[in-house]
């Protein structure tokens, strides 16, 4: 399991002070930062050379400080799908985030710097993404789902909407049960109802959870 391994990380952050601090913090938490990058092109080169478990990417990087980082992240998703991507930024770039999630929500995270209160919380998200999970800040989810078709979402009950939104944030059934103060069995029933309303039958390679999150993000929620 990735959880028990020393994560290999490429860190893309143009602020030298923040970058050096993150390298130190991640190293203290059992991660190995194999390379750092200050530009989108440096990030692409570092990922191609080192093939890390996960890349931590800021959105706005030189030379234009607009969307170079997340553009590079989208390119990495296409060229190296086994590399997890955790966008860690002050900004939500909804259009590029949607493209980042276009081929699946597994192995993708998007956290806002000012909303991460503890290092342990960040490293937990990093490990989850590296293991193929999802870690989306609620504010990111809100912006991604601010518009869109409502047909299948209208069929959800308020509780089912809460459950699928927490799924989009990367929470397990056990975690959702704790947050909503209900039994894990109740959460399982809500998840099954979401699958049914989203027309997601069981398959041999059951990835319905990811498909349910993608449906939620694509059609609008929150």
TrEMBL record:
Q: Would you indicate the residue range of the signal peptide?
A: none
The 4-aspartylphosphate modification is found at 58
Residue ranges of every copy of the HTH luxR-type domain listed in the record: 149-220
Q: Which UniProt keywords apply?
A: DNA-binding, Phosphoprotein, Transcription, Transcription regulation
Instruction: Please give the Gene Ontology molecular function terms for this protein.
Output: DNA binding
Q: Which InterPro entries match?
A: CheY-like_superfamily, NreC/VraR/RcsB-like_REC, Sig_transdc_resp-reg_receiver, Tscrpt_reg_LuxR_C, WalR-like
Q: Which CDD domains match?
A: LuxR_C_like, REC_NarL-like
Q: Where is the Response regulatory domain?
A: 8-128
Q: Which Pfam families match?
A: GerE, Response_reg
Any single biological process term in GO: phosphorelay signal transduction system
PANTHER family, alphabetically? TRANSCRIPTIONAL REGULATORY PROTEIN NARL-RELATED (PTHR43214:SF24), TWO-COMPONENT RESPONSE REGULATOR (PTHR43214)
- The name of this protein is DNA-binding NarL/FixJ family response regulator
């Amino acid at each position: 399991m990735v959880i028990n391994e020393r994560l290999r990380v490429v860190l893309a952050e143009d602020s030298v002070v923040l970058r050096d601090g993150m390298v130190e913090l991640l190293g203290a938490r059992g991660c190995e930062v194999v390379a750092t990058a200050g530009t989108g092109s440096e990030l692409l080169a570092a990922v191609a050379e080192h093939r890390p478990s996960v890349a931590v990417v800021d959105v706005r990087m030189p030379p234009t400080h607009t969307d170079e980082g997340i553009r590079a992240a989208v390119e990495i998703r296409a060229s190296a799908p086994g590399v997890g991507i955790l966008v860690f930024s002050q900004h939500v770039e909804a259009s590029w985030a949607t493209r980042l999630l276009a081929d699946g929500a597994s192995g993708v995270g998007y956290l806002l710097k000012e909303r991460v209160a503890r290092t342990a919380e960040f490293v937990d998200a990093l490990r989850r993404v590296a293991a193929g999970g999802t870690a989306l800040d609620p504010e990111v989810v809100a912006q991604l789902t601010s518009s869109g078709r409502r047909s299948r979402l209208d069929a959800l009950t308020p509780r089912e909407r809460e459950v699928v939104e927490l799924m989009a944030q990367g929470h397990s059934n056990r975690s959702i049960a704790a947050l909503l103060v209900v039994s894990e069995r109740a959460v399982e029933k809500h998840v099954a109802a979401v699958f049914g309303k989203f027309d997601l039958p069981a398959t041999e390679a059951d990835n319905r959870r990811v498909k349910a999150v993608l449906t939620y993000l694509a059609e609008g929620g929150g």
